[in-house]
């Protein structure tokens, strides 16, 4: 059995950290650190969960001529099962360029050509892989394939955790947990208050979680009172991947049978640790580090 089957985004990121604020318009900033490493919601979560001691299997986008070597290297490093991933000799692979400065980041990507190509550059989810996992993590980006991953999970009786999908869709309704970012809420539900939107989400699905950067986290379930949690305040080096880390923490909590608040506390601590370091791929926290931050927060 595998602890977690992850169906979702993998990319190779070129990351550049500026020493000051991100420049506006025709401004200038000095780069102080640069990295080429894996990214994407599913790949980041797979590396984090592996670092926390769970076994992981990954599926989703094809790996291409410009991404395979980097992704293969890190998959081996973290013991991630990528046997079901297609290596596509006719595809460059999914890439992005990221400029970060503290809590700010700008992402430049090649995602448009990836999703507009008539040929789908991603694999269907593996039913056998889902059936042999304890928990499933599903990114919502892959059209019918994401829905199929959810359907396979339901049929196999496997809980799944997702992110940033509509409140009135099946992916949310059947989820064990759905983490909805402030960025997604603002983009897809402009003008709708968080209070009204949370009620719409929470009356459906399993555990609904609203994140908002370093501001209060809301979480709840159908028929229960909405709860709040204040994120851990940490010195921020970069917020890149903090949302991916939070979702990974929720997956870890579901796998280990945590109660809702315990799950949120763990996820927030994992995300907080990631904000103190860059990049995720080379700085995966151990469970001991997460628990140390939780103990520190508990005595304040």
Quick recap:
With 300 residues, the chain is α/β, with parallel strands linked by helices.
Structural class: alpha/beta
The percentage of residues in β strands lies in 15-25%
The CATH architecture category equals 3-Layer(aba) Sandwich
Name the CATH superfamily classification: Ribokinase
Mean model confidence by pLDDT = 95
In what order do the strands lie side by side in the largest sheet? 4-1-7-8-9-10-11-12
Distance between the termini: 40 Å
For the report, how would you describe the main beta sheet? 8 strands, mixed
**Number of distinct helices:** 11
> How is the CATH topology named?
UDP-N-acetylmuramoyl-L-alanine:D-glutamate ligase
User: Any idea of the CATH class?
Assistant: Alpha Beta
What is the helix fraction of residues, given as a range? 25-40%
Point out poorly predicted stretches. Answer: none
Radius of gyration: 18 Å
Plain-language structure description:
The protein has a single domain, classed as Ribokinase (UDP-N-acetylmuramoyl-L-alanine:D-glutamate ligase). It contains eleven helices and twelve strands. It has an eight-stranded mixed sheet, sandwiched between helices. A four-stranded mixed sheet has the order 3-2-5-6. The longest helix has 15 residues.
Write the layout of secondary structure elements.
Elements: E1 2-7, E2 11-18, E3 31-39, H1 41-51, E4 56-59, H2 68-78, E5 95-101, E6 104-109, H3 111-116, H4 127-131, E7 133-138, H5 143-156, E8 160-163, H6 170-173, E9 177-180, H7 182-188, H8 194-202, E10 207-210, E11 217-220, E12 227-229, H9 242-255, H10 260-274, H11 287-298
Helix pairs in contact: 1-9, 9-10, 10-11
């Amino acid at each position: 059995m595998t602890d977690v089957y992850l169906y979702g985004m993998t990319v190779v990121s070129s990351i550049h950290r500026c020493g000051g604020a991100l420049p506006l318009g025709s401004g200038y900033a000095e780069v102080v650190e640069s990295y080429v490493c894996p990214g994407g919601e599913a790949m980041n979560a797979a590396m984090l969960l592996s670092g926390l001691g769970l076994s992981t299997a990954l599926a989703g986008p094809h790996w291409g001529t410009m991404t395979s070597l980097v992704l293969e290297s890190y998959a081996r490093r973290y013991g991630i099962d990528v046997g079901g991933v297609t290596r596509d000799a006719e595809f460059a692979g999914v890439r992005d360029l990221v400029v970060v400065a503290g809590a700010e980041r700008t992402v430049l990507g090649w995602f448009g050509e990836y999703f507009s190509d008539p040929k789908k550059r991603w694999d269907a989810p593996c039913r056998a892989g889902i059936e042999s996992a304890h928990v499933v993590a599903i990114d919502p980006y892959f059209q019918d394939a994401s829905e199929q991953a959810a359907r396979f999970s339901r049929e196999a009786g496997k809980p799944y955790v997702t992110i940033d999908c509509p409140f009135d869709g099946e992916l949310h309704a059947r989820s064990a947990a759905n983490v909805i970012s402030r960025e997604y809420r603002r983009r897809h539900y402009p003008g709708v208050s968080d209070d009204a939107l949370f009620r719409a989400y929470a009356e459906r699905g399993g555990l609904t979680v609203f994140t908002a950067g370093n501001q209060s986290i809301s979480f709840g379930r159908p028929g229960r009172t909405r709860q709040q949690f204040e994120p851990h305040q940490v010195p921020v080096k970069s917020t890149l991947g903090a949302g991916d880390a939070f979702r990974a923490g929720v997956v870890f909590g579901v796998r280990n049978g945590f109660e809702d608040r315990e799950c949120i506390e763990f996820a927030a601590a994992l995300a907080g640790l990631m904000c103190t370091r860059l990049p995720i791929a080379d700085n995966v926290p151990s469970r001991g580090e997460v628990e140390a931050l939780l103990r520190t927060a508990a005595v304040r």
